[in-house]
């Protein structure tokens, strides 16, 4: 399945990370070399990720160890936009995050007596009863609920694993509150990746393994989008978007071949 793509129409490519470029500490097949070819083509390349288990520094270090050569400033994470939102709204949050992600929130006011927001990311060590119940009580006292993203599941070395979405949904169900979502598939998250590139959405393309958050989100924001059959992809996903993907490719390397052909 593929729509006609004119190479000259693409000024920027946004690349999902986990499940697309790498899975934990392993690059997907051919991804390291393919990224170099894409960067050498003259197309702007940025990385758009909902990864919330670790800070941007941790993530950049992981990618470097996988063999990738990329600039840390070219990585846009949902943690980054969440911090901006917290600062812009003068919030004093309870952070349901792994310790490895807290670096991206250093300097944020966190007075336990004046909490007015609960921020939820992918935090397996925090998703136990007492922590969730504490968050529930804070929300019932009027705090805002902020979901760094609502991913349903993700791919790790031993198979699929629950994302933060089910835990955010549990808090929404229990409190009657609706979370403000920061990362993919939110339109503003995609648009923010084009800042400074002199590029319109229709001139940009997203590559990802999540048909809802990566592909449908990008398409609804006006981007083109290639779904890859790695990471969390499951047979039939290509038919689960309200708008068909621009193309479906075996992996990131094949997607780069498709773009540059």
Automatic annotation (TrEMBL):
Pfam families per the UniProt record, alphabetical: Hydrolase_6 (PF13344), Hydrolase_like (PF13242)
NCBIfam families: HAD-SF-IIA, HAD-SF-IIA-hyp3
UniProtKB keywords: Hydrolase, Magnesium, Metal-binding
Source taxon at top rank: Eukaryota
GO cellular component: cytoplasm
Keyword hit for Chaperone: no
Protein name: Haloacid dehalogenase-like hydrolase domain-containing protein 2
Similarity comment text for this entry: Belongs to the HAD-like hydrolase superfamily.
Cofactor(s) the protein requires to work: Mg(2+)
The keyword Ion transport is annotated on this UniProt entry: no
Gene3D superfamilies linked: HAD superfamily/HAD-like (3.40.50.1000)
One example GO MF annotation: phosphatase activity
């Amino acid at each position: 399945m593929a729509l006609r793509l004119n190479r000259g129409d693409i000024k920027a490519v946004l690349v999902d990370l986990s499940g697309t470029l790498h899975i934990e500490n392993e690059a997907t097949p051919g991804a390291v070399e393919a990224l170099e070819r894409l960067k050498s083509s003259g197309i702007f390349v940025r990385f758009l990720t909902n990864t919330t288990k670790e800070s941007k520094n941790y993530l950049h270090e992981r990618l470097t160890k996988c063999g990738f050569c990329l600039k840390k400033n070219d990585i846009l994470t949902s943690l980054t936009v969440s911090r901006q939102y917290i600062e812009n709204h003068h919030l004093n949050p309870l952070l349901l995050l792994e310790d490895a992600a807290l670096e991206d929130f250093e300097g944020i006011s966190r007075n336990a007596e004046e909490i007015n927001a609960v921020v939820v990311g992918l935090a397996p060590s925090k998703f136990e009863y007492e922590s969730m119940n504490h968050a529930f009580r804070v929300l019932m006292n009027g705090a805002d609920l902020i979901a760094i993203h609502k991913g349903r599941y993700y791919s790790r070395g031993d198979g699929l694993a629950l994302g933060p979405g089910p835990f955010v949904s549990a808090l929404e169900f229990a409190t009657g509150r609706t979370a403000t979502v920061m990362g993919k598939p939110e339109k503003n998250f995609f648009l923010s990746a084009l800042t400074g590139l002199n590029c319109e959405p229709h001139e940009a393309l997203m590559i990802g393994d999540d048909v809802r958050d990566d592909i449908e989100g990008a398409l609804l924001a006006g981007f083109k989008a290639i779904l890859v059959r790695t990471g969390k992809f499951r047979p039939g996903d290509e038919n689960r978007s309200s708008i068909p993907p621009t193309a479906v490719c075996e992996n990131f390397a094949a997607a780069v071949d498709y773009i540059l052909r």
